[in-house]
Amino acid sequence: MGNKKGAWSKIGPPAVLLTVLLAGWQTAAWLELFDQWLIPSPVSIVDEAIRIWPRLMEHTEATVQLTLIGFVGGSAVGFVLAALLHLIPGVRTAVYPLLVLSQNIPVIAIAPILTMLLGYGLLPKALLVTMVCFFPITVAMLDGLMNTDAQLRNYLQMIGIRRLKLFWKLELPHAVVHLFSGLKIAASYSVLSAVVAEWLGTNKGLGAFMLISSKGFMPDRVFAAVFIIVALSLTQFGLVTLAERLIIRWRPKKEVR
Questions:
Q1: Which backbone phi and psi does 10 adopt, to 5 degrees?
Q2: How far is CA 187 from each of CA 146, 174, 255, rounded to the nearest angstrom?
Q3: Where exactly are the transmembrane stretches of this chain (predicted)?
Q4: Do residues 179 and 228 make contact, with C-beta atoms less than 8 angstroms apart?
Q5: CB-CB contact of 139 with 210 (8 Å)
Q6: Tens-place pLDDT, residues 29-81
């Protein structure tokens, strides 16, 4: 009973707020407070989504594929880079400021460069998603590695534990909690960056579908795509959170968000 109350306390308020907002939106549409050719009602959006469902799912599948490739690639790059920056202080001193500087470059500015260099295939788009995802993972994991208990680290070094063994046995387990924080941020970014990547020039994916629909003055289709993008982001975030709960069993439940 307590678990149900706890779950409702987390899910209930946002669910109620969302319901109220949708009801207000639909009521405003019925009262013709705005032009539905510009802002369609929730009911018309759902009707249009059902009508073109097979085509919508085809575009969704392409976006999911791109998202997963970029997220997995970004996770791998972020993990390896964080480990290297931690294990080799000289590399960290030289590279870390450049990584921070690179995040000031807008994604939309990098995208055309990747397209010119690599063409219009899957590779430049997956690379763009990877570039967006790796940074929060690198920063979060590096923070965890560097904040390992100093006394315990010094004790293990004093009894002769080698550097790599110290990394695997002490520092990495401590950093896993921080790693998942970065993964959850990257999971949310991955879907959005995949959609931006699809704007570059492709005929598949929710990003391309949104562009085609907006040029054809079909706002109900644009909104349907937006809702699916939000659902994909929440799903990806939820899957990473579930993995965190399953893997980090020593962490108190109240700390797992």
A1: -90, -40
A2: 23, 21, 19
A3: 66-88, 95-120, 126-145, 222-243
A4: no
A5: no
A6: 788 777 777 888 888 999 999 999 999 999 999 999 999 999 999 999 999 99
Whether the model pTM is above 0.90 = no
Angle, nearest 10°, between helix axes 172-198 and 122-146?
150
Which of 3.30.450.40, 3.30.70.1140, 1.10.3720.10, 3.40.50.12370 is the CATH number of 52-255? 1.10.3720.10
Tokens standing for 95? 């590279």
- Burial class of residue 227 (count of CB atoms within 10 Å of its CB; 0-12, 13-18, 19+): middle
Measured distance between the N- and C-terminal CA atoms of the chain, rounded to whole angstroms: 20
> How do the domains of the chain map onto residue ranges?
1-30, 52-255
